[in-house]
Amino acid sequence: MNPLCKPWEHAASRRQFLGASAGTLGGLGGLLSAPAAEALRAREKQVLFVWLDGGMSQLESWDPKPNTEFGGPFRAIRTSVPGTHFSELLPQCAKQAHRLCVVRNVSTQDNAHSSGVARIQRGDPKNRGVAYPFFGSAIAKLMGPTASKLPPYVWVKPGSGGFKTEDAGFLGPRYGSLAFGDGKAPEDLLRHASITAAEDVERNELRELFNRRYAAPRRPAHTEASSFVFDTALELMKRQDMFDTSKFPAKDLDRYGRTELGQHLLLARTMLEAGVRFVKVGSYGWDTHGDNFNAHASLVPKFDRAFAAVIEDLAASGRLANTLVIVMSEFGRTPRINGHAGRDHWPEAWSVAMAGCGLNAGVVVGSTTEKGTEVKDKGHDIGALFHTWFRALGIDSSKTEYDNNGQPLPLAHEDMVAIKEALA
Amino acid sequence: MKDALPVPRELKAFANDRQLCVVRFSPCGLYAAAGAMEGTVRRWKVEARTPPAPVDPKKPDKPPKDFSPVELVPLPHLRGFNGWVQTLAFHPKDKRIFCADTWGRLSAFNYEAAEPKPLWENAAAHEGWIRRLAISPDGAHLATCGRDQWVRIWTTEGKLLAEHRAEDDVFAVTFAPAGPIVAFGDARGRVQTWDFKTKQKVREFDASAFYKLSRLQDVTGLRTLTFAEGGRSLLAGGCEPAGGGFLEGAPLLMQWDTTTGKKEAEWRFGAAKDGFVMDVATHPDGTLILATSGQPGSGKILFLRLGEKEPYFAHTTMANCHSVALHPDGRRFAVVSMNRASAGNGRPKTADGSYPGNQSPVHLFEIPS
Amino acid sequence: MQWPKKTAAHLSALALGAAMATALGVPGALAAAPLHPRVDELVAAKATASGQRLAAPAADAEFLRRAWLDFAGTIPSATQARQFIADPSPTKRAQLIGRLMAAPTFAERMAEVFNIQLMERNGDSEDWRGYLRAAFATNRPWDQMTREMLSPDFKDASLRGAGHFITRRLEKVGQQETDYPGLTRDVGRLFMGVDLQCCQCHRHLTVKEYKQVDFNGLFTVFSNARLQAAAGDYKTPWVQEGLMTNKYEFVSVLNQVKGSTGPRVPLGAEVPLPDPAKDPLWIVPPNTKTRSAGVPKFSALGELSRRMASPENPYFARNIANRIWWQFMGRGLVEPLDLHHAENPASHPELIDTLAKELVAHRYDLKWLVGELALTQAYQRTGVLPAGAPAAPVELFTAALERPLSAEQFLRAVLAALGEQERIVEGRGWEGLAGPRHTLKEFETTFLGALANAPREPELAVNPTLRAALFLRNNDRVQWLLERRRGNLVDRVASMTDTAAMADELSLAIFTRPAAAEEKAALATHLQRNAGERERALGRFAWAMISSIEFFTNH
């Protein structure tokens, strides 16, 4: 079976109309010999999307403005890229700067969390009255699972886990995410205690026997879809140990930091290695309206350590070349410091850091004014970032369209284009 | 028990063009200084004024509306700092002021000098943010603490005498009234007294109520340490954090017996929005004057007498009181607060499209005799 | 298998018609002109014109399972299956349909179907369920039900449940604004088959007929309704209408052209607003002392629902006819269900016209329509494709289409199949059993959590999900059902000796059909291989059956 083409796409249901007309992505696998398929698998593109919910301050991270009115108490430090400085709160990332691509002139529209989170993660396209998919759901739809058959979109997050369908928008719930709440496997992932592995295999073979017999004289779509999800379930179950942070090597646990985000990023690396197409890692509590500087002094170094470790590991294993890494929030934080030493919401001028697949390494794109209050040129809205990411993954977002019940919809805002300086 | 101090009245608010972190009076009473959220220390001459002729002859006691018997007359800033100056201290006897910034610099100046130059400075007294600077009552020692987890004891000439590596970011340090003892407290609410001669810990105090792990954030509520009752007890002020990010929590003051380490009292001043006890000044009669800052824009000056359950006076109309300093005459005090509408106001621009920063007025109060 | 001779079919239909008419109190004259032969003529004509062969009639077993799931919401027992298969009567299918539709479970099943369709898993209420059950138990006409839902009488205990359709949608979620556009959209979709969402801000980009005025004519009605908490005469949350004297004004975001409208049935005429100069505005004027908002004389909800649920509005009958067809045939004559418009013609235009016309003539009698569809060859055809021919396009209805089981159907079917219905549903048979006593509530929560769609996501197609697969593989409740327990399926079969008979019992209980030869062989091999632990091996065999796609769908 073609690993890039999901069987349910042949289903005679409403959902068959919801596909992207991304013809260039399909049609390869079936023609490939086994070694070639293996090679393709090795080259499969993946995404690590780190979401710092609430808004990390660009001034205390990627775009420091030391000794200016709004610059805050922290120093800027040198990085591995001559001339580029990060906040002193990012010492480890500074050593990885030659692998990063930082866009410092991001300029978006929405300064409210409730709408901003979704607007940003959906790429804020023109309003056509439909809910666009979050980036992870878009990639699950456009690229599907890797040859690993693991679910294409996994979300490692604090709090509750399970099947989160709301990200999928008009693509429909199957393009939602499988969420590992507090890094733990979702409900019913572990094999039932009363069933041995061998018994599980045996009964599943019997199930396939019934399916084959039933499907033989019928349309195959539902049976294929059923087999697919049972196979995916099995793939997940087989890897249950791999997702158990308590079994990770102590050395890695220490390198990533024994913090929530550290362990979740380590889990994310493991999932990427296992073949999950798109891993989103969420971290909450970045909405520092009060005591912003002490908050960032605590938060950013934990992010720094974990993020630098994952970049380093992906680079060391050669995966970075095929893994698009993104870290961002729904907006940045205000240059002006409020009365409680906090920073508020600031979509006007903020930074997004990226690395890996299809991107230039060791570059800073764009800049902000001296006090960091505005972007220097027009800046880049989230739509441009979406185009950039799609392009980095080999998807031509200027040509490919979704097909929503016959309504053609662009993948990203059609008035925007990819950020040239960011693309390799 | 002695009578309570009379209720204070505000004399005047003095505007500034920057946000300030801390304000202090010189021991001679003639100068005031404030550390700013920029690399400067603001200085003022404290000048008395006699009332002009009454406006209304029928009411000879009523001075004109904007009259203040005390004025703060700006002097040139102390410069040479980076980041912010969050802490400073006057020498109790001579004319020196010691200041520390968030990039690790510790400097001494003559606070009377018209065009001041540092008497000495150490650009790397700490690695990064120096959170608190204290001077011993006899004027012999300085203590500093910082984000680099170090507590350091210096001579007032800037010579390092002793140092101690704490387990975490150190937020507060203060000298005991007598003896080679400092108290310091770290990000997780671990407070201890430490003998800098023997370099031994004297006693631990459980201030863990000032700490909370909120998701990823280690939220530190501790802001200030003060010895009270001639050193018999130790006070810690700050916030009992309810959560990170937005940062809400009730202002909290704790009191321990310094010889046993036992908690003697604790006060919570208000609701979760009320925030932090940011600074404490002790009146010669023992009354504590507390400055609090919370969300959104909440700020109070509280008068509290040890042994009582609640403050007997609260001034609530200033926004975000970050620091309070008592004049050596015991009759006046200064408060660093915030301009109006500075709560959560980070985004708006003015009508003309400009984007000015917030500012901290210094409010001068009088305690009537 | 052959269809019964035409005369026989007509006779049986007439017999059923008379039987049903008696049971339902429908005047004989209406039942005398059956619709189903006409339906089959039109389906056959289209298939022939497309050069496609029609599939054979479903085998008895296949039909039996389908009919039970559709009309009783569950599957029959192995015994009932055996009896039906063995019954030589040529009219047994019509009799079965008549029997199932006359049973109280039919109203339950219809209430469930409409709850899922109308609420789309977005919140439940006892009053609402009670309303639906009562309405279907008395075969209330659909136009009346529609008026009761869209212009609810919140003071009438027997009717207020209907208001849940609106009140639930007006509840605020988190910090979101009240979702008036969502309610507007749902009314258009579910009662008229027109999804006007795109027209909120501009004309529809791909559908010519859908105009901005159509959305806003509906929107102005619902945005005039305020959700109020239960108090006084109102035992449930209710909606209060405001005074409406002005048209609603809107601007197209595409070309900034302004427009305005009063209340309006989409794609229909505008309702005239009262004239404040001439018409009395209030039934009960507002009272500033008691702070009561008053009751306006003009009820936009009342006007709208009256005009929408009317023969004057052709979309109304076509929508419900299409949805009923979809429910029992697995695909709408118009697809998507909520995109009726000129450039999206029905697969069988004459058929949808006929269904809609006849439904109006039968005063929106849904039970009559369901009964007629059940008697069609189209409904009773096998899902097995004619041998040797490539699969015909699904919209020709040449073979039965697979349909999803709702989570509720799945749960009932699995409890019935595995013989745990009595314990779980009726709470009987627990005496002397070790271990926890499970409840129906607990099973419903677990099964709906794993198998129902997310809120607001229509359940329209067979939808195997990873969540469902993990659930069936590993869930504790599922595993519990497969353990041997006094009187359950595994217990029954474990006490048998002949493997062929065991396979038949399993297959009749679970699949509602006898076991095939290869399945019998598979069971024999399986039991041989696991000779030491027969019961557990049977449990695994039964698991494979309930986890198969054959069990997962209504086919």
Question: How would you portray this structure in words?
Answer:
The complex is a heterotrimer of chains A (424), B (369) and C (555). Chain A has helices at residues 34-42, 91-95, 113-121, 135-143, 197-215, 221-238, 250-256, 260-274, 292-316, 382-392, and strands at 46-52, 76-78, 85-87, 100-106, 153-157, 162-164, 177-181, 278-283, 323-328, 332-333, 345-346, 350-356, 363-365, 401-404, 407-410. Chain A has 424 residues and is α/β, with parallel strands linked by helices. A nine-stranded mixed sheet of chain A has the order 6-7-5-8-1-9-12-4-13, with helices on both faces. In chain A, strands 2-3 form a two-stranded antiparallel sheet. In chain B, the strands form eight sheets. In chain B, strands 1-30-29-28 form a four-stranded antiparallel sheet, with no helix packed on it. Chain B is globular and about 65 Å long. The relative contact order of chain B is 0.13. Chain C has 27 helices and eight strands. The two termini of chain C are 17 Å apart. Helix content of chain C is 51%, strand content 5%. Chain C has a two-stranded antiparallel ribbon with strand order 1-2. Chain C has a two-stranded antiparallel sheet with strand order 3-4. Chain C has a two-stranded antiparallel sheet with strand order 5-6. In chain C, helix 14 packs across helix 15 and helix 24 (499-511) crosses helix 25. Chains in contact: A-B, A-C. The interface between A and C is large, with 62 and 62 residues.
Descriptors:
heterotrimer, A: 424 residues, alpha/beta, Alkaline Phosphatase, subunit A, 2 domains, two-stranded antiparallel ribbon, 10 helices, 15 strands, globular, disordered N terminus, B: 369 residues, mainly beta, Methylamine Dehydrogenase, Chain H, four-stranded antiparallel beta sheet, 30 strands
Structure summary:
With 369 residues, chain B is an all-beta fold. Chain B contains no helices and 30 strands.
Give start-end ranges of low-pLDDT stretches of chain A: 1-37
Main beta-sheet annotation of chain A:
9 strands, mixed
For the record, the count of structural domains of chain B works out to 1
> Strands across the major sheet of chain B, in which order?
1-30-29-28
Instruction: Determine the CATH superfamily of chain B.
Output: YVTN repeat-like/Quinoprotein amine dehydrogenase
- Report the CATH architecture of the largest domain in chain A: 3-Layer(aba) Sandwich
The most extensive interface, with participating residues per chain, is:
A-C, 62 and 62 residues
First-residue to last-residue Cα separation of chain B: 18 Å
- What would CATH call the architecture of chain B? 7 Propeller
Indicate the structural class of chain A. alpha/beta
Q: How large, in whole angstroms, is the Cα Rg of chain A? A: 22 Å
Which topology of chain B does CATH recognise? Methylamine Dehydrogenase, Chain H
Along the chain, the helix and strand elements of chain A come as HEEEHEHHEEEHHHHEHEEEEEHEE
**Total DSSP E strands of chain A:** 15
